[in-house]
Design a protein that fits this description.
With 188 residues, the protein is α+β, with helices and mostly antiparallel strands. Helices cover 46% and strands 14% of the residues. It has two domains: 2-122, 2-methylcitrate dehydratase PrpD (60s Ribosomal Protein L30, Chain: A, 2-Layer Sandwich); 135-187, no CATH class. It is built from eleven helices and four strands. A four-stranded mixed sheet has the order 2-1-3-4.
């Protein structure tokens, strides 16, 4: 799903595509990916986080609607959101022979109600061995996940400690930095 997520988010952000503008989403995958994930009878309307994480229909809908795919997009409320389901109904999946030989590849085409067609091909998504994440990418991802539980000072300490792990005498120092403050954990 990584290439599909990356391609979808690229398109909606670069072309300012809104959920209400979408007429169709066409996803092209390898034949293996197609066989494993494209069955609309079992994949279109997931009921759990696990099934949502394996549903190209759901992933496309939530990525277009929220312009993000993270833990918040797998909440029970989001799984039942009629706007996500409406977008999932607009998704068409097909195999594409051009993608054979590329693991984790995909093409996403979004057609708007005005007839505009946008396409993005991702052969090696961010994080693939041939397209590794940078330190800045990893920091951004950490901040997006930890920011709900830690303030900026604590996140900076964690990041600095990890970058200098070879100088840490006791790994317990890092573990202590990863403890979520009680007042934040009670509100989450």
């Amino acid at each position: 799903m990584h290439s599909q997520i990356e391609a979808t988010l690229t398109l909606v952000k670069e072309h300012d595509i809104r959920a209400e503008d979408v007429a169709e989403v066409r996803i092209k995958k390898t034949s293996d990916d197609y066989q494993h994930t494209a069955n609309p009878a079992t994949r279109r309307y997931p009921k759990t986080k696990y099934t949502a994480d394996h549903s190209p229909y759901y992933i496309s809908g939530v990525a277009i609607l929220d312009r993000a795919v993270g833990p918040e997009q797998y909440s029970n409320e989001k799984l039942q959101d009629p706007r996500v389901r409406e977008l999932a109904d607009k998704v068409v999946i097909e195999p594409d022979p051009k993608l054979e030989g590329f693991s984790y590849s995909g093409i996403v085409e979004i057609t708007t109600k005005k007839g505009e067609k946008y396409s993005c091909q991702v052969l090696r998504p961010k994080g693939h061995p041939m397209n590794p994440m940078t330190d800045a990418d990893v920091e951004e991802k950490f901040r997006s996940m930890a920011g709900k539980f830690m303030d900026e000072k604590q996140m900076r300490q964690v990041i600095d400690t990890i970058y200098n792990l070879d100088e840490v005498d006791d790994i317990g120092e890092l573990i202590k930095l990863l403890v979520i403050p009680e007042q934040i954990s009670q509100t989450s």
